[in-house]
Structure formats: C-alpha cells, structure tokens
Write a structure and sequence with these properties.
The complex is a heterodimer of chains A (367) and B (276). Chain A is an alpha+beta fold and 367 residues long. Chain A has helices at 45-53, 101-111, 116-130, 145-157, 175-192, 203-209, 227-232, 237-242, 275-284, and strands spanning 3-14, 17-29, 34-38, 60-65, 68-71, 86-89, 163-167, 195-200, 212-217, 220-225, 249-252, 255-258, 261-266, 269-272, 289-293, 299-302, 309-318, 323-329, 332-338, 348-352, 359-362. In chain A, helix 2 packs across helix 3, helix 2 (101-111) runs parallel beside helix 4 and helix 3 packs across helix 4. The chains are: A alpha+beta (367), B mainly alpha (276).
Chain lengths: 367, 276
C-alpha cells in the first residue's frame, strides 16, 4: 500500500521547551517499495516511523495510507495503530518474554480474533519462511540474538501487513550475521511485496537495501533519491559526507580565474575546472566554495615528478584489500583509497584528481 | 588456612548467626507452645511435649481464635488485592504517560504514608463510628488500603519502569488498545513484581495492631494480633501456652503464602529476560 506524508511536523514538549523532532517532512512511498530513512542519531527518523505506525500523533500535516487519510491536517482524523494494519520490528525486538515463540508470532492474530486453525497454519508458515520452525516452543530468553530477530520478523509478517516498519532491525546483531540477514531481508521484502519503511543510521545498509533513500538531518529531509543518486549527486555537503563507506573529502580551497578559465588551487598545484563544472562553480560564487572528492576517485602514485598535485602520506589505515591514506597537500589533508600497499607513512606521492568526478557545494554555515 | 576457606568459614558463621537471630525466637515460640509447663519467662524448665495448647486454641469457643484467623486472612487479602489493583494501573500510567512533575507527585504520595498511625487513630475511630462501621471488615480494609497503597505504588512504579516501553508499543502496533496492551503484555511481564508487592501488602495488613485494636470490638472483625494480645486466662494470668500455640498457627498461613508466591516470583524472574 502507498504511504504518503505531506508537510508532517512533530513537536515534543519537554522540560527544556519544545523540541521539533520532525519538520515539514514530505515523502511518497510507492507500492511494494523498500524505502530507507537514513540519518545520524537524533535526526527524527524513528519519529517518522512512529508517525507512520500511529504510535505518535503529528503536530501538523497529513499522512495517507493508500487512499485513506490516517492523520489529517486539522488533527480531526487520527486512525490508531490497531486499524492501520501495520507491522513493526523494533531494534530491541520487543518480544513478549512471558510467551513462547509460537505465541509471540500468533499474538497479532489472536488480538485480531482469528480462528485457531488459521492461526496455527499462519504461524507455521511464517516460522518456515524464517527458518525457525524448530524453536516455536522456546521462550525468547532461551534464544540467541539472531533467532530473536527472526522471531520479531516472523511476528511482523504473519498477518500480511499493509505496511512493514523496521526500526534499526540489524543494529543489535554482530557484523557477520548483519550482512547475511540484510540480504535475507531484502529477498523477503521482494517476495512479500510489502511496502516497507526501514530506519537506519548505517549508510551501508541504506545503500544495499533501499530502493530509495531519504536522508534526514535535524528532523528535516535533506535529500531523497535512489542510492545511486545520493552517491553520485549529493546536493549538500552533509549528504556528501554521510553517504559512502569512507566519507568524501570536503575541502575549502581557493578557486582562481586565469584567462577566463577557473582553476582549483590545491597545494602548489593548479587544476583547471572542466567546462561542465565551471558553470556551477560560477553560480555558487568562487569565494565560499567547498570542493568534494571521494577517496576512491583519487588516484595516487609514488614520486612527484611532473605532477600538478603532490603531498606527503601522514597516516595509513590498512582495510584489507585497500588502504586508506591521509595525504597532506599544502595546508589541507585528503583521504585517498588505494590498492597499492607499497606506500607507507612519510612517502612523497603525487595525486591525480579527476575533477569531472568532483562535487562543488556552497559552504554551509557552521552549526 | 587459605583465604578462600577463611571467607567460606566467615560466610557460614554469618549465615548461622543470621539464622539463629531470625529463627531462634520462632523456635522458642514453637517449643513454648508445645511444652507441658509453658513459662515464657523462666525457660529453665525441662521440656515435655503436649499438643493440648493447640487443641484448646482451636476448640475453646470463648477464645474465638478461628474467627480471628479468618478475619485476618479476609481483611489482609482484600487490602492486598485492593492495593495491587489500584496501584498497578496507576504505576503503569506514571511510567508511561508524559506527566510533568511525576517525581513531586510520587513524593507527595509517599508523604501520606509517613503520618504516624497513632496521630490518626482517634480521628479514624470517630469517623468509623459516625459511619457505623466500627467492628466491620470495612473499618480495617479502608485504612489499611490507604496506608499501604503509597508503598505499593512506589514498588510497582519501579517494576513497571523496568518493563521496556517497546513492549507495549509492539502490542499496540500488533492491534491492542492501551488497556489490552496492559492486560496482555505489561501485567504478565510485571507479574513477579505484582506478586511480591501483593505479598508485602498482605503481611503489612496481617501484622497491623493499632487500628485493629481501636476499630474492632469483638470476634466479628477482630484480627489475630489483637485477639492474641487480649487472650486471658481464667484468673487473669497470661496463658503463655495458648498464646504461643495461636502464634504458631498464625504463622502457618503466612509461611505457606510466602512459599507459594516465592515460587511464582522466582519463576517469573528466571524466565523474564526482557533484554534484547
């Protein structure tokens, strides 16, 4: 079912005054889509999820589930979670400790008053889908983290919800299990075809899972798009630094105009800005400009002869296949990813920076 | 002697000391109750077993001991049930709703239970007299409930605070109303806390003396502590054998109750594991 939020805001009252957790959020999530809400902790992404679930009432704005208005602009309509047919997986799993796994999964069906035979069948099916048929009689306390996770997902899918809400479901798992469960979640979501809203602070999860991603900061949506959009065309320095397994280099560098061409000054080097980018740079104004380049796009070579940009390696982090180098160029430092393991600390290197892959932003005011 | 065995020895000595300190008087009570020559104050006399005191406590109609015991159980049971019944939803609300000044509220409630009973008992007597409730169960149940409720609320609030809020949110998303979430999820999960609070409330009410002394007049509502205190022998002497036999019989239901509830409490704790 489609989910849409228009101009939704939520303000919490606290002892220190009102907190605007969600500001004018607009989202349209399509049928069967896996939509990821990504952002640092405290950005309001979980509140958006709770708004969709009906656990939280919006202060203003409208939420629609399918064609039905579940929370209206004037606050007159509010459909409680019970009538929304949404299912949620919590970060803490929130399994009912006093019930067996079977009863945990059956809980939503029992509450809905379904027939006993149907419940048994549905639970058995959900258990089989998640591979937990052998632990249906156990209690949550006896299960491992990964098993609890599966029970929580089984409980969510057992009644075929209109909307599937996942609140950081993988963050309590260890790294190996997280990667495999991630793939499984994606497969499961495809099979069920349920519209899914997925909250995470982990950009890798967002990139690998999401059909589309909304990046949030301070309660507002910063950018919405496919993972590729966000990676290739970040609209703000925040988006640029948040997406990508190693954060993008963001440098305040002077831009000079030499004979009608724009040049980027990096240390002693002068890099001509390609015509495609020049227009954007001119529009942003050359004074307060931020230059961004991803560590994986910079090529590095030992030796400094005849190269425009040169520097010294100040730190090496071995990531296995690749190394992350910190290279000092003039008075700035760039991160560079390379597979060349022969480069060590203190080496003089030349950098080849492909400006066609660079990003230019207006400098943000300090927060 | 190694440090570890020293520690173990000290530990055992401590346990033994505590056991003697706590159980000694009870043992002495039982011995006195079963002795042919029960003399509380000169314990030198040789012990000779008899069940006569127990028989006379239960058989002598003028003592009304079975009545007292029934009154005690009923009054304490109702008081405990009322306390837990009122305090549980209250504690749920306190821990789940965004109440400003929640701590102030809890402190005010605690202050109510700080009034010394002596300061209220004369007023209570007139109050119950006016209502015509002297010597009824209500005369005891109402003040007991009011007196134990604050403590119950405090204990239950800390128990409910330990039940993760995600559990009731999960229940609500799974289709429960707030009340159904309380009934189906929060209460069962908090059950060990509720049982221990109920037990505590029961024992508080069961042991209470002053209110029971002032607000009851005879075996229609008088409770065991007062009843035993007012036992009198034929010639005005204190019948220690009967008093102690009654005390032993009074201890039995409390011990049984504790054992039964203890099992539930421990069971609840071990299967709990709310953590994710």
């Amino acid at each position: 079912m489609r989910l849409s939020l228009s101009d939704v805001s939520k303000t919490f009252r606290s002892l220190r005054g009102p907190v605007r957790a969600v500001r004018d959020v607009n989202l349209a999530i399509g049928e069967g889509e896996l939509f990821v809400l990504l952002g640092p902790s405290g950005c309001g992404k979980s509140t958006v999820l709770n708004l969709a679930a009906g656990l939280v009432k919006p202060t203003s704005g409208e939420i629609r589930l399918g064609e039905r208005v579940v929370a209206s602009r004037d606050g007159k309509v509010f459909v409680p979670p019970k009538e929304r047919n949404v299912a949620m997986v919590f970060q803490s799993y929130a399994l009912y400790p006093h019930l067996t796994v079977f009863e945990n999964i059956a809980f939503p069906l029992r509450v809905a008053g379904e027939k006993k035979g149907d419940i048994g069948q549905a639970v058995a099916h959900a258990g089989k889908t998640l591979g937990i048929s052998d632990i249906l009689q156990a209690r949550p306390a006896e299960l491992s983290g990964g098993q609890r996770q599966r029970v929580a997902i089984a409980r969510a899918i057992v009644r075929k919800p209109a909307l599937f809400l996942l609140d950081e479901p993988l963050s309590n798992l260890d790294a190996g299990l997280r990667a495999s469960t991630r793939g499984e979640l994606k497969r499961l979501q495809r099979e069920l075809g349920v519209t899914t809203l997925y909250v995470t602070h982990d950009q890798t999860e967002a990139m690998t899972l999401g059909d589309r991603i909304a990046l949030l900061r301070d309660g507002a949506v910063v950018q919405t798009g496919t993972p590729r959009d966000l990676y290739e065309r970040p609209e703000t320095p925040f988006a640029a630094s948040f997406i990508g397994s190693t954060p993008m280099n963001l440098l305040k560098v002077p831009v000079l105009e030499e004979g009608g061409d724009l040049c980027l000054c990096l240390g002693q080097g002068r890099l001509p800005i390609p015509p495609g980018q020049a227009a954007r740079v001119r529009r942003l104004g050359t004074a307060g400009i931020l230059f961004g380049i991803r560590p994986e796009h910079v090529r590095i070579a030992r030796g400094t002869a005849d190269r425009p940009v040169t520097g010294t390696v100040t730190a090496v982090e071995d990531l296995g296949r690749e190394s992350l180098l910190q290279v000092r160029v003039g008075d700035t430092t760039l991160s560079v990813l390379t597979e060349d393991k022969s480069i060590g600390e203190g080496n003089a290197v030349a950098l080849d920076i492909p400006l066609e892959k660079a990003h230019f932003f207006k400098k943000e005011r300090d927060r | 002697m190694s440090g570890e065995s020293q520690v173990r020895l000290l530990y055992r000595a401590g346990v033994l000391g505590m056991a003697i300190f706590a159980l000694g008087p009870i043992l002495y009570m039982a011995l006195t109750a079963a002795s042919v020559r029960p003399d509380f104050l000169s314990p030198g006399a040789a012990f000779e077993f008899t069940a006569a005191h127990f028989v006379s406590v239960l058989r002598t109609t003028s003592l009304h001991f079975p009545d007292y015991l029934r009154n005690s159980l009923v009054v304490s049971g109702i008081s405990a049930a009322l306390c837990v019944g009122i305090a549980s939803p209250a504690a749920y609300a306190i821990t789940r709703l965004p109440l400003p000044g929640r701590m102030l509220f809890l402190l005010c409630i605690l202050a109510v239970s700080m009034f010394p009973p002596v300061s209220m008992v004369s007023y209570l007597f007139r109050f119950m007299g006016t209502l015509g409730m002297i010597n009824t169960y209500a005369a005891l149940v109402l003040p007991y409930t009011a007196w134990i409720l604050p403590l119950s609320l405090w204990i239950l609030t800390s128990y409910f605070a330990q039940v993760p809020a995600d559990l009731d949110r999960a229940a609500v998303v799974d289709g429960c109303t707030r009340l159904a979430a309380l009934r189906k999820v929060v209460l069962p999960v908090a059950a060990p806390g509720i049982f221990s609070t109920a037990l505590l409330a029961f024992i508080f009410a069961f042991n209470e003396f002053l209110f029971a002394l002032m607000l009851t007049t005879d075996h229609a509502a008088r409770t065991v502590p007062v009843g035993i205190a007012l036992f009198e022998g034929l010639h005005g002497e204190i019948p220690w054998g009967v008093v102690m036999a009654a005390s032993v019989l009074t201890t039995v239901p409390v011990v049984l109750l504790t054992l039964v509830f203890q099992r539930r409490i421990i069971q609840g704790l071990t299967r709990g594991a709310v953590k994710g």
